[in-house]
Write a structure and sequence with these properties.
By secondary structure, the protein is α+β, with helices and mostly antiparallel strands. The protein has seven helices and nine strands. Helix 1 (about 5-60) runs antiparallel to helix 2, helix 1 packs across helix 7 (about 280-300) and helix 6 runs antiparallel to helix 7.
């Protein structure tokens, strides 16, 4: 079944949640309680080891006290976060296939649904070596194929002492939309940087001065770029960040697809919390809100209007 409006999604989500999701959640409450107790226990044990080490260091060398205390707290937080994530993954594996029935022709997976080489070819991002993904969705909305990928792009460097440091190029959600049009050229829209702009092709001079102040646009086909970036599209694109809660939105038109990158530090599409009953509706309502915000953005950009962007 395919749904063609936000109203359809919301209505069917409520139906599927109460009839199918809630009953399947009951079995996870015992798992959540057990995991929560273990997480608290391991956290306390970690802090106990830290305190014991601190007491020992007080007798030996006071200079290490601050470092040990900090490391102990960090380790305890990592332990809890890992157990939280593992529980959430178990919950999603069971619940997501059921929940996706509410979204018609959409599926959830932890495998990438957008090809990494296509992301590189979009030239939206600066250099990156590695890509990790969390939640991924693929489906059809209003006749258009849509892929959604929660993605982090990173690269590593080494200092003069051989120490490795990981740098994040991008963290957020990447959305690929089959726009129903053949783009013979390549148009890139990126946020303007304080230290200048990376130029791939020739810069496109646009009629909207406010858009040009906020975004740097370059393309290998000036005529097509101006056809795609209409005044109406530019006005809508300036405002999509408000709907998704990000100030950093960029996009690329290439090979018949519109690729949109929305940067955010939030852990998106979360379901389940160790310290709340699994039947708590808040995470599921927030999940619905995040998915709907993406679909609303597509509606708002009018990407699905085949008469023009």
């Amino acid at each position: 079944m395919e749904f063609n409006s936000i109203k359809d999604f919301k209505s069917n989500f409520a139906k599927i949640y109460h009839s199918s999701v809630v009953p399947s959640l009951q079995a996870f409450e015992a798992d959540r309680t057990r995991t929560f107790k273990c997480a608290v226990l391991y956290t306390i044990l970690g802090l106990a080891v830290c305190i014991s080490t601190l007491i020992y260091c007080l007798k030996v060398d006071n200079s290490f006290i601050g470092s040990i205390a900090f490391i102990g707290i960090i380790i305890s937080c990592i332990i809890y976060a890992c157990m939280q994530k593992n529980f959430e993954n178990r919950l999603k594996t069971r619940v997501m296939p059921v929940l996706m029935q509410a979204f018609g022709k959409f599926t959830w997976t932890t495998a990438p649904v957008i090809d990494t080489e296509f992301i590189k070819a979009s030239k939206i991002f600066n250099y990156f070596e590695n890509r990790s993904v969390d939640d991924n969705f693929t489906g059809i909305y209003r006749g258009m194929p849509i892929d959604i990928s929660e993605t982090e792009l990173t690269y590593k460097t080494r200092d003069s002492k051989g120490r490795t440091q990981t740098h994040t190029t991008f963290k957020g959600v990447i959305i690929s939309i089959g726009a129903g049009k053949n783009f013979t050229g390549h148009t890139i829209v990126r946020c303007r940087g304080l230290l200048g702009n990376r130029k791939v092709y020739e810069e496109v001079k646009l009629e909207d001065p406010e858009f040009s102040k906020q975004f740097f646009v370059d393309a290998n086909d000036q005529v097509e770029a101006r056809f795609l970036l209409t005044t109406a599209f530019m006005e809508r694109f300036k405002k999509i960040s408000n709907s998704f809660g990000t100030k950093h939105a960029e996009c690329s038109f290439k090979d018949g697809k519109l690729l949109i990158a929305l940067a955010t530090s939030k852990d998106l599409f979360k379901l389940g919390s160790l310290h709340r009953p699994v039947t708590d509706t808040a995470p599921f309502m927030n999940f619905l809100k995040e998915i709907i915000s993406i679909l609303e953005m597509i509606d708002y950009l009018k990407v699905t209007d085949k008469t023009g962007l």
